[in-house]
Amino acid sequence: MKLAGMKAKLAGAGILIAAxxxxxxxxxxxxxxxxxxxxxxxxxxxxxxxxxxxxxxxTGTFTASxxxxxxxxxxxxxxxxxxxxxxxxxxxxxxVLVIMEENKGYAATLGTxxxxxxxxxxxxxxxxxxxxxxxxxxxxxxxxxxxSGSTQGCSNDxxxxxxxxxxxxxxxxxxxxxxxxxxxxxxxxxxxxxxxxTYARKHNPFQDFTDVGTPCHDLVYPxxxxxxxxxNGSSAPDFVWITPNLNDDAHDGTVPQMDAWLKANLAPILAxxxxxxxxxxxxxxxxxxxxxxxxxxxxxxxxxxxxxxxxITTNISHYAILRAIEATYGLSFLGAAxxxxxxxxxxx
Length: 348
Hints:
Blueprint: H1 3-12, E1 15-16, E2 25-26, E3 29-30, E4 45-46, E5 52-53, E6 95-101, H2 117-125, E7 127-129, E8 132-133, H3 139-148, H4 168-175, E9 179-183, E10 195-196, E11 199-200, E12 218-220, H5 224-231, E13 239-243, H6 255-270, H7 273-276, E14 280-286, E15 296-297, E16 300-303, E17 310-312, E18 316-317, H8 318-328
Parallel strand pairs: 6-13, 6-14, 7-17, 8-18, 9-12, 9-13
Antiparallel strand pairs: 1-4, 2-3, 4-5, 7-16, 8-15, 10-11, 14-16
């Protein structure tokens, strides 16, 4: 386009272009377009009251002459679409859900995929940590570890504390982050007995630490429909833990039974606004593998940032998952979480 034509079009758009011959000053800034080709203009002056230069473009001093005004056609107003308000995440977002399975280990689950097609489909679609390990045997030390960054010296399944050290539950409570831990088949909320039917306290670490305080956050798992209703409600927790019962977590039950439970109970959550409308992460992991030195377990991270990542070979344990949860909520790292690999990039 020729220079004169470009000037006319720019003038019509409300942009004043100085021409060669006289110094032009806007406020304390001198324009420099007078001696620069229009296609390379570094300074544009917007008409208005007051007249101001476009920030970040007007530098240096150039001579310019007063431009000849070009006739400007009256613009026709264009209709403006009404903006649609975006939902604002509630205080305490993002959302994190942990589901803790039991005992069967990596080889019997994601290592073969013959018995757990739903779990394997999630591993293929999101991030699957194929070098993930429990920190000890038997169950209880692993639950204590993921909640506090240490086994706290526990080496059996009856380590019920009370531990007077910081824990994840206590951190969340202190930070004002809404959270709940759901225990399937627990006879009543905040039940403190060691066992009841297919509920086992050794799979519930949150009652073992005194810093959680009141109110108690240990609730009876209400089933998928009721839980989704709660998660989509105005008082939804931001952090959620679920321990299935001894049959559904594969401790006493089978891998196909665990897989069926996951499909029936997790799929509705993944389709809910609690997961889809926020920066949300679901972790499916296992306390320990079969007895042995490797203690390999399945760990799958389901999130937008985990989507499509497939197999991740980083060597992690429960401490890395604890660290990522704490990083997500801006909490300090407890115990061994401080030196664990950072996998928080897969969250959210």
